[in-house]
Amino acid sequence: MSNINVLISGSGIAGSVFAFWLLRAYPNANITIVERDPALRLTGASVDIRSSAVDIIKWMDAEQEIRNQTTKEEGIEFVDANGKAVATLRATGRSDIQSITSEYEIFRGALAKIFIDPIIGRVNLIFDESVDHFEQRDDGVVVTFTKSKESKKYDLLVGADGLGSKIRGMMLNSKPQEQLYDEGVHVAYFTIKSDLLQGSRLAKWYNATGGRAVFLRPDPDPAGRTRGNLMNVTTKGDVEMKDRLNQAVRQGNESYMQLMEELFRDAGWVTPEVLQGMRESDDFYCSLFGQVRSSQIQHGHVVLLGDAAYATPGFGTSLAIIGGYVLAGELLSHAGDVAPALGRYEEIMLPFAKASQGGDNAMQLFNPQTQWGIRIRNAILAFVTRTKLDRLAMAGASALGFTEKKAPMPEYQWPASSSPDTLD
């Protein structure tokens, strides 16, 4: 099916990577990307690239451009209320064994642009529009759009529309929240128009009681800026606080900023400057920090991709890249026969995504509720880093041949002459 007709809902990283590889497989593919925003969303927090996704960006000839646009972050310092470093975890300088700071630490907007630029002239981009509903048929899926009310038939509908995926809800005939595992974590992201790190390339992580955390990360902009995050980690029993945070997210940016000013006003460290920077920022956004855990990511002629399918904080970008590659590869391997291709994609990605999502309490452990808990965590981190156990463990893993867990990706026979434009 060399002229396969595909609709992708969402113009982010997952959808763009999939479109790139589908055009490699089928140069005559008819690809439409529908985006609810009025333009490409080229903002966002720092993301990283790990595991098999590192191989994929190399195959896309994107690695060098990504390295050129990384944040240049050299590691992360855990600091106390006086700004004193209690532990420092540095980047490894390697792509196969990485620390908290990746070798490919890059802002989401920059990465999204790198991925969409090579395909932007080869796909049909529709902005300020979304999928209202769809109807499955034996030979395709009929999609009706929200604003135009127009209905069109496609061979495949790809839901790459994020954590709260509307496509996921319709495909599974459920509310999108039903597949969302709420870790009790909410995060605000924004750019501070001054350099609170004073030229340092080390990010800083500060915790206050009540599961509050302040993150400052370097920005490579020569004007001198800082990327700020405010994170709230609530316990499972604190339903009232969780409800307040969820309501503020729903009500929008102003409501959430007011809540952050209330909750963080006595947090200590440089939080007053961070709150002021939050108020003056022009790229503020906030969201729930959760996982998508679904036992099904495809049905008929509809498939889920990226965060819509298997959102995983800390590894979601890598899963989006891997998923886009695998989905296109399976459509190639099955000669455009949608049903078996989607089935095989699901068989490959779901187990790997589940293994990558890990345990339920990681964020709680790293962001204690009490001052005593913060002291214990800091003491453990200080011991590990001062005795260089972290570096020793990484060196040992390398010597024994253990590197980052990779998805068991098949080898696809990509047509050599049909590659989309590279990123050189």
Automatic annotation (TrEMBL):
Query: Does Disulfide bond count among this protein's keywords?
Result: no
Give the species. Answer: Capronia epimyces CBS 606.96
Keywords for the protein's UniProt record, in alphabetical order: FAD, Flavoprotein, Oxidoreductase
| A Pfam family matched in the record | FAD_binding_3
InterPro entries in the cross-refs: FAD-bd, FAD/NAD-bd_sf, FAD_aromatic-hydroxylase
Domain named FAD-binding: residues: 4-354
Give the classification, highest ranks: Eukaryota, Fungi, Dikarya, Ascomycota, Pezizomycotina
Residue stretches in coiled coil: none
Report what the protein is called: FAD-binding domain-containing protein
A GO molecular function annotation here is: FAD binding
Claim: Flavoprotein is one of the keywords in the record: yes
